Amino acid sequence: MLDFTPDALADLFAEDAVYEFPFLAPQREASRYEGREQIRAGFTRAWASPYPSPVVGFRDVRVHDTADPELIIAEHEFDAVNHATGDSFTSGFVLFLQAREAQIIHVRDYADVLRVSAGFGRLPQLFEQLQNTDHV
């Protein structure tokens, strides 16, 4: 994440893994990637625009145990900078991550879409997207 390296991220996933984004965001063309190569391609597209990585650090990382030994819930905040404006912002995330045999098999990524969109100056696109969706 700090380096915005889609190949390194994708290599952590099983071949048939699923990565989901339950919350709508204007920088994403899909709400779900199915398979390692789709994860690689999706993050390659998503991370091409704000390159270099806007993420300057993570903090308040908390990992919660669950009754399922394959599942963890992780919370964190990251500090980022909008390279176009120089403005800094902070956003939070919650990840539900399921792993088996040293590979990630499923992620549900709950991002604070409002803060990320505001930090990158994308609130108008987010609101337009919300008006044009059947999922409101």
Provide tags for this entry.
6-stranded mixed β-sheet, alpha+beta, 4 helices, Nuclear Transport Factor 2, Chain: A, 6 strands, 40% strand, 136 residues, globular
Give a structural overview.
The chain is α+β, with helices and mostly antiparallel strands. The chain has helices spanning 6-10, 36-48, 113-119, 123-131, and strands at residues 13-20, 32-34, 55-65, 71-81, 88-100, 103-111. It has a single domain (6-131), classed as Nuclear Transport Factor 2, Chain: A (Roll), CATH 3.10.450. The protein has 4 helices and 6 strands, in the order H-E-E-H-E-E-E-E-H-H. The chain has a 6-stranded mixed beta sheet.
Task: Produce a short descriptive summary.
This protein is α+β, with helices and mostly antiparallel strands and 136 residues long.
**Uncertain runs:** none
Structural class: alpha+beta
Radius of gyration: 15 Å
Compute the average pLDDT. 87
Number of helices: 4
Order of helices and strands: HEEHEEEEHH
At CATH level 3, the topology is Nuclear Transport Factor 2, Chain: A
Strand order of the largest sheet: 2-1-6-5-4-3
Helix content: 25-40%
β-strand percent reads: 35-45%
Q: Please name the CATH architecture.
A: Roll
Secondary structure elements and their pairing?
Layout: H1 6-10, E1 13-20, E2 32-34, H2 36-48, E3 55-65, E4 71-81, E5 88-100, E6 103-111, H3 113-119, H4 123-131
Parallel strand pairs: 1-6
Antiparallel strand pairs: 1-2, 3-4, 4-5, 5-6
Protein name: Nuclear transport factor 2 family protein
Organism: Streptomyces silvisoli
Domain SnoaL-like: 6-105
